[in-house]
Amino acid sequence: MENSGLENFLLIATKPDNIPIGTMLLFVGWVFWVAISQMIKHDRWIKEGKKEKVWDEMIK
Fold it and tell me: Rounded to the nearest 10 degrees, what angle do helices 51-58 and 19-47 cross at?
């Protein structure tokens, strides 16, 4: 019987040498999400004319 795509993925992803890669991908995804959410917030402040608020948050 042939393994499904998900089973093959899990078989490869859970090998000990691939665990750090998966962890790194999760971390990169989290950092990307934080950056995008800050970008959206800063763009909103700039449109509202609160450019100095962006600078104040960046130098905290």
Answer: 150
Average pLDDT, whole number, for the chain?
91
Round to whole Å and give the CA distance between 9 and 7.
5
Q: Do 22 and 13 meet the contact criterion of CB atoms below 8 Å apart? A: yes
Local structure of residue 3 (DSSP, 8 states): P
Domain that residue 55 falls in: 21-60
- The answer to whether position 16 is within a domain reads no
The tokens for 42 are: 């800063």
- Check residue 58 and give its pLDDT: 83
Q: What is the pTM of this model?
A: 0.69
Q: Give yes or no for a contact between 2 and 11, defined as CB atoms under 8 angstroms apart.
A: no
